[in-house]
Amino acid sequence: MLNDDELLRYSRHLLLEDVGETGQQALKNAKVLIIGMGGLGSPASLYLAAAGVGHIVLNDFDHIEVSNLQRQISYQSDDIGEAKVEVAKRKLQQINPEIKVRSINKTMPEMQLTMELTMADLVLDCTDNMASRQLINKACVDAKVPLIVGAAIRFEGQLMFFDHSETDSPCYHCLFPSSEEQTLNCSNSGIIGPVVGTIGTLQALEAIKYFFGLPSGIKNKLKLFDGKSLDWQTFTVNKDPKCTVCGQH
Amino acid sequence: MKIHVNEQTLELAENSNIEQLLIYLDKPLMGSAIAVNQEIISRSHWADTILNEGDNISLFQAIAGG
């Protein structure tokens, strides 16, 4: 049941036919793990907290640097040197004291990630490197936890959603099978704040819709965003029967 | 036959497969993802996916930034 404060706080959700009190209660019960608290994780976590996702776990090993502030909108100049997850946690609790936020200030070893996944309904991959992305994908496939992946570089964004609770779901590895490959990241290629912000915001939107029980526009799809033309391209991702991560399941 | 790669038209030998296209374009096999008519073709099917006249090919790289 929602209390009086919550009824008021979420009144603009409650007005929506697709949401109502049932939808808001589903958000309140939801447990989301956000891995990576940079340019994607900042807006994603702010929106999930504001929306009333009841349990949010923030994971990042990193500290705030001045070069982060151009796009990582959870942080301000006073925060330089502090742990991202601690500052973000404080901010989320200020936005919404009704929710629970937990922080993990390190790179999780595989065993800890597996343990965290037993407590998560959904994961947002907001990381900035291929090795983490492959590790998170594999852990989510194994634990059968749905995964919303965002990535951005320069003026480009990528967005996808794999519901690993379904056995025939494709996975990130079906699409990008190598962790060795030369991939682009923000520190070697540059990034525009609103581009990474757009992708992080859409990760939050898809997460909220998932808990409301609304169909996703990106399930088993890859969306490419062009921040110059504002064009989107949509591709279908099929399960690769030979995928070394999800193929044998 | 004519195909379209990232919205540019190019002439390719009949019965070419995706792997041959990437070699022809001199693109690295490792870092790329490829879609034929908006459908991603997984790497294990690159050699046995034959391209057809008029196919729309999208070729792009994984990005990891965030």
TrEMBL record, chain A:
Pfam families: ThiF. InterPro entries: ThiF/MoeB/HesA, ThiF_NAD_FAD-bd, Ubiquitin-activating_enz. It comes from the Bacteria. Residues 10-245 form the THIF-type NAD/FAD binding fold domain. This is HesA/MoeB/ThiF family protein. The lineage of its organism: Bacteria, Pseudomonadati, Pseudomonadota, Gammaproteobacteria, Alteromonadales.
Automatic annotation (TrEMBL), chain B:
SUPFAM superfamilies: MoaD/ThiS (SSF54285). Pfam families: ThiS. It comes from the Bacteria. This is Sulfur carrier protein ThiS. The gene is thiS. It comes from Psychromonas arctica. InterPro entries: Beta-grasp_dom_sf, Mopterin_synth/thiamin_S_b, Thi_S, ThiS/MoaD-like. The lineage of its organism: Bacteria, Pseudomonadati, Pseudomonadota, Gammaproteobacteria, Alteromonadales. NCBIfam families: thiS. Gene3D superfamilies: 3.10.20.30.
